[in-house]
Amino acid sequence: MLKRATAIREIELEPGIAPPAELLLSDAPWIARGYVSDWPLVKASQNSAQSALSYLAGFYKGRPVNAFLAEPESNGRFFYNEEVTGFNFVQVSTQLTQVFDKLLAFSQSDQKAPSLYVGSTQTSAWLPGFNEVHALPFELPNPMTSLWVGNESRVAAHFDFPRNIACCVIGERRFTVFPPEQVENLYVGPWDLTPAGQPISMVDFHNVDYGKYPKFRQAEDHAQTATLQPGDIIYLPNMWWHQVESLSPVNGLVNFWWQETPGVYGSPTEALKHAFLSIRSLPLHQRQALKAMFDHYVFAETTEHLEHLPQESWGRLGEVTDPLARQLRAELTNSLKR
To answer: What is the pLDDT of residues 52-65, one digit of tens each?
Structure first.
């Protein structure tokens, strides 16, 4: 745990009552204690981890899952090997119920156990019927619900583009978060080889090497943290960096992911990949010229730069409608085929 991290803001929300709309559009994280404490899975976990896993197993129909396994020497840190050419864990396809059995066996062993988890498993596909009895009391635009279950582990700081409400349902979880602009102080690893899809911070928060990562002190000044109990929820805005630590022998987390923009717009991270391809290798003066273009056309906070034009002529410079979005996608697809 980072000593200089401040507490994530706590708000009071009554279970079953929707939060104010502005909280779901907030650019800062918050937590609400006990907000999903009435969920059946949370109630089962209050009896025992075995009760919770047995309850989850009742929804499972046998579809294989991807599990991640790290040796005890990893101390729960799912990370790279020393050369950053691979990882310190293996990924296997297995039955979810077999993972549950292993977790219970590990939790009862006197020996230091391997770290094991199944991450971001879409509940509608793997646990049909689960969503109907574990819903939030408000509507989200096209949410994707997923389950994470495992034992003690550390998932390094990373970002996700969608907004997320993460619900702690089994065991304790610690979140340590940073605003997006701290990217330069987090010493992010490679994009081409990632543990689970997104680039991660290379800093070991449990044993920070300030000689190797001196700017991390600046990131620490902006760090926020909270430890969640079963029934607690945390809201994570778009692009916030977050490290997640599972602190109990059996842990479970249910995530609700969503974004306000239509799916036809695509993911902004794909635009970043395109920039790696077409912009990053240009001479500095060309990159600076393109930066000015991006600032003018993409990152402008008002439409003042367009007011010299009739609004009906704005086209792609104005609001991107569904037909225009599809036209732009077609143009991009055709250009990338060349």
So the answer is: 999 999 999 999 99
